[in-house]
């Protein structure tokens, strides 16, 4: 089975699992896969959205009902939790709609929201809206980068195309980490 056949057969499942476990890279690659016609673009966006939604629901319920678990207690004791809690208290709806777009706080945020007084139904609705937006935006960026790579370099072999995409992802993550740290540092100074 070739790489293209493998992605065609299991790509949506991989994007779903990857978006829940890792996030942006899997969703971004889903857009690249859609650009290469290995899966429909709606399927890549849906898989990324649903994977992110499911993982965040799981972490929310871990914060709400399983605060004695080791990984939840580790999150609670972290310095980042104080910053996240401050942003959540100050801008509850805005924070829920945007945390997945802020690099470095994606996993800890739903745990913090689970520990807060925000109702499960409110989080479910806002999480669904935010996950749908996030999945669509990130896969669209991957799709558009695929167009840009093709315009610059011509039609690359699949593995070369994926390497270029991964290099772009690493650059974006490094930039987002720098910006995210500055933003969180400013937010914590205001607390």
TrEMBL record:
<protein>
    <submittedName>
        <fullName>DedA family protein</fullName>
    </submittedName>
</protein>
<feature type="domain" description="VTT">
    <location>
        <begin position="25"/>
        <end position="143"/>
    </location>
</feature>
<dbReference type="InterPro" id="IPR051311">
    <property type="entry name" value="DedA_domain"/>
</dbReference>
<feature type="transmembrane region" description="Helical">
    <location>
        <begin position="12"/>
        <end position="33"/>
    </location>
</feature>
<feature type="transmembrane region" description="Helical">
    <location>
        <begin position="45"/>
        <end position="63"/>
    </location>
</feature>
<feature type="transmembrane region" description="Helical">
    <location>
        <begin position="84"/>
        <end position="103"/>
    </location>
</feature>
<dbReference type="InterPro" id="IPR032816">
    <property type="entry name" value="VTT_dom"/>
</dbReference>
<keyword id="KW-1133">Transmembrane helix</keyword>
<dbReference type="Pfam" id="PF09335">
    <property type="entry name" value="VTT_dom"/>
</dbReference>
<keyword id="KW-0812">Transmembrane</keyword>
<feature type="transmembrane region" description="Helical">
    <location>
        <begin position="123"/>
        <end position="146"/>
    </location>
</feature>
<feature type="transmembrane region" description="Helical">
    <location>
        <begin position="158"/>
        <end position="179"/>
    </location>
</feature>
<keyword id="KW-0472">Membrane</keyword>
């Amino acid at each position: 089975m070739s790489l293209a056949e493998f992605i065609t057969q299991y790509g949506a499942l991989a994007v779903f699992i990857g978006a829940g476990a890792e996030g942006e890279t899997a969703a971004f690659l889903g857009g690249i896969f859609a650009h290469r016609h290995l899966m429909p673009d709606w399927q890549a966006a849906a898989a990324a959205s649903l994977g992110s939604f499911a993982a965040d629901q799981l972490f929310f319920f871990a914060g709400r009902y399983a605060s004695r678990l080791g990984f939840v207690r580790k999150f609670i004791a972290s310095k980042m939790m104080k910053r996240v809690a401050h942003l959540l208290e100050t801008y509850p709806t805005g924070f829920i709609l945007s945390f997945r777009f802020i690099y470095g706080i994606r996993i800890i945020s739903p745990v913090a929201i689970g520990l807060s007084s925000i109702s499960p139904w409110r989080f479910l609705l806002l999480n669904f809206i935010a996950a749908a937006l996030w999945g669509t935006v990130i896969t669209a960026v991957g799709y558009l980068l695929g167009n840009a790579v093709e315009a610059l370099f011509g039609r690359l072999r699949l593995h070369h195309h994926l390497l270029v995409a991964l290099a772009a992802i690493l650059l974006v993550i490094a930039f987002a980490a720098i910006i995210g740290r500055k933003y969180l540092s400013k937010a914590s100074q205001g607390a």
